[in-house]
């Protein structure tokens, strides 16, 4: 059953890639410029290198390291779920004209992967597919690595290195700037980790267990000694089975789990299951966590660092 799921997922990716390539052809033949995002600089001045990012976390990272040396186009908007993102024809166009495409990889962008492979002409960085990142497995997708590596700050640092090196490769003239911004960002990440460790110390070890809508927090849990359970596995494409929900309820009662959490980028159906499990077991809903997307601008979780702070504060305040 697991294998069938995986095959089906790959099939969809290929289907979408083919469809988008076809649509691009039709658009080019049939009409002029639409309102596709421009990945190049303004006319007259020398065009800046163009960078396309998939998720909102990667968009934040690219902008943090690049400053105004490059033009960054983010494909996904805050709140969009990368597992089931609906590819637009303009995405393929942006990817085709980019000097650098930055994606997570490890099949997080299940629908976009084929579009990147089929259209990218410049450099492509799959930031989670770094040699130094040891991935966790998945109970639900046998053999498939868990793609949510950004949830561990130490692993996110490898994303930083990959994106920095990608920027240097397409724009070597600004190497010193990319390196100094990355160094400053590493310091901020170290400060974030120190603060996180202090906050988690407020939670007694016996209470360090949480339930979330989907399995996006395994790396987060690993790094911070929190036991994490998801209503469903590492992708939001599946529907939970009744026996999984029953087993989860039993676990919540047995382990006396204090709080369950909904996620900002997963479906309302999935989040309502979390609320029902909380109701059935007497546990509370501890709040909303940002898993696969940053928050909207002004939400207080619109950068990687503020998103992590929001998640830690929400978890610690609910568990302590
Ligand atoms: Zn996810």
UniProtKB/TrEMBL annotation:
Keywords: Metal-binding, Signal, Transport. The keyword Methyltransferase does not apply. GO terms for molecular function: metal ion binding. Signal peptide: none annotated. One of its GO terms (cellular component) is cell envelope. InterPro entries: AdhesinB, Bact_metal-bind_prot9, Lipoprotein_PsaA-like, ZnuA-like. It comes from the Bacteria. Its main location: other. The keyword Transmembrane does not apply. GO terms for biological process: cell adhesion; metal ion transport. It is found in: Cell envelope. Gene3D superfamilies: Nitrogenase molybdenum iron protein domain. Pfam families: ZnuA. Belongs to the bacterial solute-binding protein 9 family. This is Manganese/zinc/iron transport system substrate-binding protein.
